[in-house]
Amino acid sequence: xxxxxxxxxxxxxxxxxxxxxxxxxxxxxxxxxxxxxxxxxxxxxxxxxxxxxxxxxxxxxxxxxxxxxxxxxxxxxxxxxxxxxxxxxxxxxxxxxxxxxxxxxxxxxxxxxxxxxxxxxxxxxxxxxxxxxxxxxxxxxxxxxxxxxxxxxxxxxxxxxxxxxxxxxxxxxxxxxxxxxxxxxxxxxxxxxxxxxxxxxxxxxxxxxxxxxxxxxxxxxxxxxxxxxxxxxxxxxxxxxxxxxxxxxxxxxxxxxxxxxxxxxxxxxxxxxxxxxxxxxxxxxxxxxxxxxxxxxxxxxxxxxxxxxxxxxxxxxxxxxxxxxxxxxxxxxxxxxxxxxxxxxxxxxxxxxxxxxxxxxxxxxxxxxxxxxxxxxxxxxxxxxxxxxxxxxxxxxxxxxxxxxxxxxxxxxxxxxxxxxxxxxxxxxxxxxxxxxxxxxxxxxxxxxxxxxxxxxxxxxxxxxxx
Length: 467
Known about the structure:
The protein is of the alpha/beta class. It has helices at about 10-25, 60-70, 80-90, 105-125, 150-160, 200-210, 220-225, 240-250, 250-255, 260-280, 315-320, 330-340, 370-390, 400-405, 410-415, 435-440, 445-465, and strands at about 1-5, 30-35, 130, 140-145, 165-170, 175-180, 185, 305-310, 350, 360, 365, 395, 420, 425-430. The chain is globular, with a radius of gyration of 26 Å.
């Protein structure tokens, strides 16, 4: 029997080192007990075998390592054993991790998904409150109750975002503290150790109330994305019930109000929310693409546009200009819109991925296709844009955009040019990306494809007019 004691509940390096040695020696998963630091017992004291020091090396797929990074953060006490079981299987069957029907793979993917969701919720729902230290220096303190062991993993995110601030994040398990230079760890805390509120919070609540639009609130969707356990730590959520109630009390007055005034008020709220979303996206670090890119390239256009176009990602010129579709593909797009009788100023245009992915070749930056992970990481921004704009029809320009909108791989040739239902129930449309036209070397074929592209855009526009 081998007993492996890891230093921390999220000790990926410790698990990898032990798992590698055990797997190389061919140790059966049933002959290993995995335990963590202060949770360890002496049940097997005196009976444990030392870790093997020799064995036959073997390689594992990158996908397994990515999976393990998430799974070890879960609170499931069986996570280390489950990962080792799959690791041992991969030694004989390297392709086993691709079998999504396998119960073990499915369970591990589910654990990883829950961890990723928890990581996102911490980044989205954690709120700092200002306190003064003994010397008068401001420090920002936040309380959070994660479902899994994600605090140390998320530390870099908060360091990158709030590098110049002195801050602390307190959780029941442990705490982390940043002084502007060094990150340190401390023991767990209780909620009473965190401050209850500060003047900045009141300013934020006033702003939130000013942009709140009750017509767009969907309580079921809100609870799905933001469970009530997070509400008590977020100042703005305390306002929601009262804002909704006040909105309902004003309903009869709103009906009597002139429609143009109503549209102006709602449009103003949406425009403010959109501007806030754009500013938030400017600091996006959801995937590594933000590091080499010049800037986030957000969508643009009327926030009440009936027609929305979603492209793949910014190109070289878009990355420099900070606007979508201004390069060569954008020129093709503009010509096609004009030929289809669609004013670009009247449509909303954005991309599935907000940062430019490229390969550096000398002084040139060559476009590189975004991966599924990058598309999925950026999907949240596109979904928020669609929630604000609420287009009557959303057009996916190319396979990457279709993957983002539909959440699955889509064959352009099969689905092109017809109305499709998006996951939220709204209408979608698929056509090629304008860069596809640019890549056709034969001028005659390129002209034919451009005409077909124009026909797709015209049909999408007519679909809206007919509804």
